[in-house]
Amino acid sequence: MSLLFGYGTNGLADHRLDEALDVVAGLGYDGVALTLDHHHLDPFDPDLIARTRQVRRALEERSLRVVVETGARYVLDPWRKHSPTLVSDSGPGRDRRVELLQIAVRVAAELGAEAASFWSGTLDEQIPVEVGWDRLTRGVEQVLTDADKYGVTCAFEPEPGMFVDTLRGVLELRRRLGEPPGLCVTVDIGHLVCNEEQPVRDCLVGVGDLIANVQLDDMRRGTHEHLELGEGELDLPEALGALMDIGYQGLASIELPRHSHAGPAVAERSMQALQAASELARAQRSTQPIEHPSKHPSTQPSKQPTREVS
User: Fold this and answer.
1) What does the alpha-carbon distance between residue 77 and residue 83 come to, in Å, rounded to a whole number?
2) Which of 33, 195, 226, 244 is the most buried (most CB within 10 A)?
3) Full-prediction pTM beyond 0.85?
């Protein structure tokens, strides 16, 4: 099978959105991971409905698929990056994050997006873990209610350094919520290298039937820094081969949010790396089908601190 590759618009932040889409389509990508932010598609734009419809037409004109991402740094607070979150201590702050995610769900529905992706946020050290789980589950329940209404798949991303930082944490969240079918997983392949104990392939196979969104970047063990493909410790052909083996059919999008200064060149190099790795993965693939486990294995949390760069 062939994988479908996308490029994250947060790696083309210095471009107007239409021009960013031209770059992505011109390089042969199949879609975009569209981050809702003030400079591309502002989730708090008074004319959001009309603007979203314009974006949908732009995507259709270029035959691009789309996933909605919600990791903009300062879209809610001009002073604090990625704040407030679903585990923040302020009720109004958490409500603001829930509102953003509910808007993202509606935008995803209007765009015909494959998924709307989001994460937990970081819990203050003095707050008990169970309080964090209570805050998170209540917020996600609200988002899922809207997602069910609009027929949108939600994809939860474990993020190094955040309250839910491993795949095991996402499985625990799903367990606490009663295994909702509309809550799936965003897998950042670089995070698997950085933060998980199991090998990349085992991680992907372990949650294969739950993956609704894939982000592609390279990393080194224990350092949360998004690197271009080939600059870290990721075995890219092995990772792509695992995605092929589990039958993943969604977008796998380059996630390089600190590379906008050289966006087109990085996007071109990334596509070349993906094409070469895909050919190698197809050549190396096992002819034996992979059987998904009846229960997802418990992926272990990192046993060493993760250095935050990105």
Assistant:
1) 6
2) 33
3) yes
C-beta of residue 148 within 8 angstroms of C-beta of residue 182 = yes
Q: Is residue 34 part of a domain?
A: yes
Would residue 302 count as lying in a domain? Answer: no
85 and 94 Cβ atoms separated by less than 8 Å: yes
What would the pLDDT profile of 84-113 be if each residue is shown by its tens digit?
999 998 888 899 999 999 999 999 999 999
Determine phi and psi for 156, rounding to 5 degrees.
-95, 130
**Residues spanned by the domain of 58:** 4-286
Q: Which CATH number is 15's domain given?
A: 3.20.20.150
pLDDT tens string 243-270: 999 999 999 999 999 999 999 999 999 9
Of 51, 52, 58, whose CA–CA distance to 23 is shortest?
Answer: 58
- Domain-located, residue 103: yes
3-state secondary structure of 229: coil
Q: pLDDT, tens digit, for every residue of 150-197? A: 999 999 999 999 999 999 999 999 999 999 999 999 999 999 999 999
User: Is the CB of residue 264 less than 8 Å from the CB of residue 22?
Assistant: no
Residue that has been written with the tokens 């990772």 in this structure: 239
Confirm whether 259 is domain-assigned.
Answer: yes
Residue type, 34: L
